[in-house]
């Protein structure tokens, strides 16, 4: 469907005049690869960054500025369900409190998301876990840029998928004023662990930072509902 159309007709109106036909073709080709049915045929994170980074000409300008959306530091409205400490911190957009909770929770919510065979304990695996460990130390010490780098090394290997790492990197991005990247990581955490309330909470904070307050409120309510479900014996956290 995409290949049969004029690329410029498919381009978002906000992007018109900012990219050449060749650049637009590269982006749409990448998008079509991302939609492939077989996971092995989709590009990995490194490929995405390598392709898109050269096209970004205003890397220091937040997306809400480029789109002409005013920025207001408002938290999402209080949800309908009772709030846990994590929910309360997210509703207040208290990033310091969220950081403390994630440090204390550690990796207990990752249980069952990875089962490694003996053969997978390769040197690459050990290096990957060492990168995560360095990320954990940096995260604990509030060196968030280093934490992003180390967690990215862990994620890029791809042998083990950790929702906690995505949630931690999401918070690091928020603390570095990168809400777009924070939202992507929170969504990845949800992909790994669909019923994990922390992933929804992190999305709520990122959406609020992006001034998408209705979406943030919906996400906060969904997170609180998942927590309530777990407390009644369902799966989620």
Automatic annotation (TrEMBL):
GO BP, sorted A to Z: brassinosteroid mediated signaling pathway
Record key words, sorted: ATP-binding, Cell membrane, Kinase, Membrane, Nucleotide-binding, Serine/threonine-protein kinase, Transferase
Residue ranges of every copy of the Serine/threonine-protein kinase BSK1-like TPR repeats domain listed in the record: 88-204
Any Gene Ontology CC annotation: plasma membrane
Ranges in coiled-coil conformation: none
InterPro entries, sorted: BSK, TPR-like_helical_dom_sf, TPR_BSK1_C
Predominant subcellular localization, coarse grouping: membrane
GO molecular function, a single term: protein serine/threonine kinase activity
Subcellular location(s) of the protein: Cell membrane
One Pfam assignment: TPR_BSK1_C
PANTHER family found in the cross-reference section: SERINE/THREONINE-PROTEIN KINASE BSK5, SERINE_THREONINE-PROTEIN KINASE BSK11
Name of the protein this chain belongs to: Serine/threonine-protein kinase BSK1-like TPR repeats domain-containing protein
